[in-house]
Amino acid sequence: MDRQERTPRPSVAIIGGGVIGLAIGWRLAQAGCPVEIFERGEAGKGASWAAAGMLAAGVETEPGELVLHALNRASQLAWPDFAAELEKATGQSVELRQEGTLMVALNRDDVAQLRYTYEFQRTQGIALDWLSGTQVRQREPFLHPNVVAAVFCAGDHQVENRKLVRALRAAFLAAGGKLHEHRTVTAIEVTGTRVTGLRLEAQRIAADIVVLAAGAWSAEIAGLPPLARPPVRPIKGQMLALRMDPSHPLLRHVVWTPRVYLVPRVDGRLIVGATSEERGFDANLTAGGVFSLLEGAWRALPDPPTPARRASIIRRPSKLFAR
Fold first, then answer.
1. Which residue from 53, 218, 283, 289 puts its CA 20 to 30 A from 122's CA?
2. CA angle, corner 237, sides to 245 and 129, nearest 5?
3. Is the dihedral of CA 30, 36, 42, 43 positive or negative?
């Protein structure tokens, strides 16, 4: 039997080494494609590092996002198998937690908004449970005694995003991918109607396919025709982390409040986020931003008197994400 010639795999260049770029790169490398990632900083240390890791395709669904919702839900359903495969490939845990998510109402106005959101999301086929204040505190006893009601979404989870990017980086490299850090792509080269490569200052990199996964910087890269330029801009988001006793955590579920979200970690951190500010590429923390986060967290989760349950501040960087 004659040996058939195999069609060469196309070469792929990925701009951006965050969760998206690394995940795409890993899958392509698994499939045998020659793939290289070019990251302007350190892989996984941008918005992917300063995130909360929420997998909230249910509670984040809003009117006007029905097509996006379908994509998000399909992605979310694939997460348990994806996490298991990644952990098996690397021997590293990504701490996928499946306790579910609570959206709480702290007063009557909050209840009205929560009821509206609940009824809309139910029309989209999202499985939700309406809880009374008593039922909420049975699940999370350290929430404010005046919590009026909550919605519980059993299908919305969380992953430890910092462990996730570490695992994806390791999996990508183990599968044969090439990672170039601290390499800023200045332009995408286009010949006619086809992308032919990248430019990094004076160096040119040829590629059959280019994947643009640079997040907030995607629209800043030259070379694309106007109609192909992604309509994204940077949005500043400040976050902070509180330190809890891992054996006596203040929360076990992801909790959304009217002002902030609260995400408990296995190691005892409680992530509090996030502001949303039109500040361009400014990634500095501000006193006002940190204060608003602390106040929002305190209104939902007053510090209990038991010393073991008290929380202290851990400095956490701000992030820049695309919108």
1. 53
2. 65
3. negative
Angle at 197 between CA 194 and CA 202, to 5 degrees: 140
Residue 239: what are its φ and ψ, rounded to 5°? -140, 165
- Contact by Cβ (8 Å): 305, 36: no
- Give me the domains of the chain, ranges plus CATH numbers: 12-53+162-228 (3.50.50.60), 233-323 (3.30.9.10)
316: helix, strand or coil: coil
> In a 3-state reduction of DSSP, which class is residue 258?
coil
- The DSSP call for residue 56 is -
21-79: pLDDT as tens digits: 999 999 999 999 999 999 999 999 999 999 999 999 999 998 888 888 889 999 999 99
Tell me which H or E stretch contains 13.
Answer: strand 12-15
- Indicate the pairing of strand 254-256 with strand 101-105: parallel
Is there a contact between 37 and 66 (Cβ–Cβ < 8 Å)? Answer: no
**Six-digit token string for 75:** 């992605």
Q: What is the distance between the alpha carbons of residues 38 and 33, in angstroms, rounded to a whole number?
A: 16
Q: Could you write out the DSSP letters of every residue in 114-143?
A: HHHHHHHHHHTT---EEEEHHHHHHH-TTS
pTM equals 0.90
Measured distance CA(79)–CA(82) in Å, rounded: 5
For residue 4, is pLDDT > 60?
no
pLDDT (tens digit, 9 = 90+) per residue, 204-241?
999 999 999 999 999 999 998 888 889 999 999 999 99
Q: Which residues pair with 312 in a beta bridge?
A: 243
What's the token pair of residue 142? Answer: 């350290």
